[in-house]
């Protein structure tokens, strides 16, 4: 959920930090507690750590406060100060890092940038962390800095079953051409085929619609771009961008989309303002709570050109990290493990945010029919990849890539030329990677 604030200033401050930060060897966050924390506990003093926890419509401030209260009750003498980003957590944490106020625990940030700044402690792969499947997929430079234990499908299209039926659509599309044919049928019935919005959603929508034929064809696309083997000006991205432009030209998107916020967009779909809503699996939590929408919601994966099911999303991504300078790294580690590995908390988080457990002994929760269908798509997918907004391990974009791609998606909707926009993405990559 990304709305970028003060990006230029934050980037400048982070660049300064990259040169200034200590180059000392990383000490794993499981390597023992600082003496000060133990001494304070023995003396009966309160030990406080700060935790930046990403607040969303599903994982609300009240939800996090409840989890914190439970942890504090189980750990007398420990207090958690919750830090909330005013808008975007990535830029906010970078600004806190630049000012020397980085929280002990950070959440849902761009971990490669913080690793490069030597701002995070690596996690020790102890018996607890080994309970998580695919944990090695998140390694950066051979170490684990981002801890999470969920699968989050994102290249999904939720649809209004009543509108589909009224338009004579009897099955969900399996190829891109079928998707566009269905969009035209919907438009002919005076339905808005697709909904999108401003903020981070524009780039996200273009990214997931493009994913099956870009990242789905090359799960290491970011790594290959860093090596100069692929570019945004390649044919597959030209095709993806032209499709995006054509959808807009044909009137397949809602009018005034860029003026809407993410929250407004979600409500627009639930009120029946459009037929299809490309969004991640977290939407199913909001759909579950919308009792009076008056129609049934279905879901299918964004189709590829040839019909192969290639799903994009996160595997153990957007998790938790621990500050390199935390004075109470042992407490921070205990809190992170409490969030992720306590089975009650794990269940609460994945149920609230409609995620799929990625523990070796997975935690289940009562799924809605929509969530069950998504879990089936995950099992059937030939490929599970990242996309522009989701990096996997050390296959990462250039600094600022997601923000720049979001601008590119919006610029294309406002009439900018495909070749010009794609060229600007490559130029931005080369400039920011130096």
Automatic annotation (TrEMBL):
The keyword Transport applies. Keywords: Signal, Transport. Residues 1-25 form the signal peptide. The keyword tRNA-binding does not apply. Transmembrane segments: none annotated. Belongs to the bacterial solute-binding protein 1 family. This is Extracellular solute-binding protein. It comes from Paenibacillus filicis. The lineage of its organism: Bacteria, Bacillati, Bacillota, Bacilli, Bacillales.
